Each structure stands twice: as structure tokens, then as C-alpha cells.
Amino acid sequence: MTPGDVIATVTYVCLVSSCASVSLRIVVRHKWLDHGLKLDDWLMIVALTVYLMFCAVIIAFTVVENRNPILKESSADLLLLLLAIGEALFMVTSIAFKTSLMIFFRQFLLERRQRYLVASITLFYCAISVLGIFLALVPCRTLSHLARKRVEGKCIPINIWNGLLYTHGAVSALSDWLFALLPILVLWKSSMPAKTKLGVTLLMVFAVCGSLCAVLRTIYTGSLHFDARYYDVNHKPSYQHVTALVINMAVLEMGIGITAASVACLMPLFRRCAGWFQRHPMTGEDICGDSLADDMP
What we know:
The chain is mainly alpha-helical. 75% of the residues lie in helices and 0% in strands. The chain has eleven helices and no strands. 37% of the residues are buried. This is Rhodopsin domain-containing protein.
């Protein structure tokens, strides 16, 4: 498989999982809970919508890669343009996703200073993301002839862009775990049964699994730099191979994050399924399907 094929496969898998999980989240919140959809649900829908656009750009990137195995200036211009648009869409997705995650975890915090802390970190993260959107769309003043401008050093210094991406990835990973750990500390001090505490803790940790990909994306973010070496067909690794890991990590970071955060909201569905299996052991009929509808008031 070519690097483009690998990226496309990862993207399609993340698309299916994120769409399915958010759809289930909407059904559970809208149909089975009295309060219906809340602000964090709407923000997750926004995050998914922009993520779909981001994935469409990534798929277009893989098509261009596969059709142009030998990199020329024209194809490099198009690849860099798609990367710039993709980076901007990634930042927009991350803003909606992180804000949704903050609202979800903030409801478990009782102390005002803890609530201010997670809100402040989210605001700082969003500010970095907004700056990233601006720098992604105007890296060389205009989005034309990007390859030539990068080779000639007419774009923003690579150290500035990499520094922003390193900061963005680090804050993303740290904020995810802070969002999860603070409610967990509150939870374990409560009078809940130990079994319930463990189950909720696992759900909260699962909700921030995307941060692992954020760490890897941060480590290898410098590989997105483009220079004249990649025009040489004998240069190894090629630009396609070099960028594949970072792109895959970006796709996985948001895809896993959206999926995991939405699955963490499906406790009512899990309880109904568990109750159905207890009442109908080993039957295998209408698994969590029509019987769930029958159980609904």
C-alpha cells in the first residue's frame, strides 16, 4: 500500500466510527433523556461536521499523492494547498471538540477554582487554535505558488509554525487528561459504590483517548516542512512517506476523540442493553433492537 492508501484507510475508518458514535449520542440524549440535546452535544455535532470536511480534504490529498508519485512543482503546490486547508479545518474541529469536552467534564466539578481552571485552559487552547487557523491560511501571504515560496524561504519561519504546533499538541494532550483527572478525584471522594466509581472512571479515561495521538502528532510535526530535496526522485524518504504519519495522527486524534467522547455519553444505552440481556439470556434475538423500543416508555 502507498502512504496515500494508508491515510485513506485510516480516514474512512475514523469517519465511520465518529459518525456512528455521534449519531448514537444524539439518539440517546434526544430520545431517552428528559433534557434533550445540550450545548456540549451541539458542539460535538459542529465538531463532527467540520471533521467531515477535514477528512474530505485529506482524501483529496491522498488522490493527488497517488496520481503524482513523482513530485513536481504543480503537484507540490496542490498538496501544500490541501495541507493548509486541512490544517485550518483541523484547528476549527479541535476548538469545537475541546469546548464540548470541557462542558461535559465541567459538570462533574464542584469547586469554583477547578471550573475556572478547565475553562481557562480551554480558552488558551482555543486562542492557540485561532492563531493556527490564521497562520495555516496565510503562511506565505497568499495560497498561490506555495511550493516555490517555501523553497525560497518566503513563508513564515518554520520554527514559528512548528513551535505553534508543538504548543497546540502539548496543550491538547495535557488539557484532555486534566479534564478527566479532576472529575475522577471528585468522584472517588464521593459516596458512590466502588463498582460505579470504577465504571464512570473508565468512561472518563476512554473519553480522552485521542490525546495519545496528539502526543505522537506533536513529536513528528516538524516533518511537514517542505523543501527542494523532495523534487529528487532518488531522495528517501519521499514527502508522501514523511507526511503520512503526522496526517494519520491528526485524523486519528480527532476521530478517536469524537468517537470516545460520544461513546462515554451512551450509558443509558448500555444500561438498557444490559437489562435486556438479563431478562433474555442467551436468546440472540433482536439484540438491543426492537426490544429496546419495547422497553421505552
